[in-house]
Design brief:
The structure is a single chain. With 251 residues, the protein is of the alpha/beta class. The protein has helices spanning 23-31, 45-49, 54-61, 64-85, 114-124, 142-147, 164-177, 203-220, 235-249, and strands spanning 2-4, 36-38, 90-92, 131-135, 154-157, 183-188, 225-229. A 7-stranded parallel sheet has the order 2-1-3-7-6-4-5, with helices on both faces. Helix 7 (164-177) runs parallel beside helix 8 and helix 8 runs parallel beside helix 9. It binds zinc ion (ZN). Zinc ion (ZN) binds at residues 137-139, 189, 191, 230-231.
Length: 251
Amino acid sequence: MKVIFHKRFYEVYTSDPASAPGRMEAIVKQLEGRYEFTEPGPASERDLERVHGRSHLQSVKQETLVYEIGLLAAGGAILAGESAVAGEPAFGLIRPPGHHASPHSCWGFCYFNNVAIAIKKLMSSAKVRRALILDFDLHYGDGTANTFSGVKDIIYAHPEGSNRDLFLKDLQRTLQAEEDYDILAVSAGFDRHEEDWGGLLKTEDYFNIGAWVRESSLKHCQGRRFGVLEGGYNHAVLGRNVDHFLQGMMD
Ligand SMILES: [Zn+2]
């Protein structure tokens, strides 16, 4: 299990909770020494243009720091996807997050849609034809859904449930219902944890989710699987939650 991380993700690029000081440090502290860390390069403009329109890119470019770190986050998602295709599962420990970034607009602490950029790049090189994107963040990834709206080969799934049991059942049902895909990508947001905004999941649930992702990918797409970080804001529990998810997802 490869962890894709760049030191520049420590930089506080704006004042939202995804960019908060100490957030990435809390996760790295938990994972360091136990996973192989790999540094991504920046995504190219061509990579971004597969998902985003010119005017959106120009408007993000006005904020130099956000743009630079955003390119590295998208590059991190691409590297995670390429690693998965090459046979090694990977996790993009990246920020800013991306699932609220649509082709022509963004909100919710997101600028570029990292997971969509990675999937589109893999599709452009014919490495992937069909993908399942599982998003277990507390919030619906409207940006990802908008990007792939009407694209029948890309399934975007955001499980829901009013309690812990129903949510986990819906997530499992989603994984069992989908069978035809070449890669399983995960928008991994940890803000549904009982000590985070959503107040629902326990830390061990992230292990189970990771294990279900692994199982489904082995069954349907030769084990090709990768995740990227989306939300998760309580630094006291975030590292442990990410770690549990990775433990479940790894071989
Ligand atoms: Zn969220």
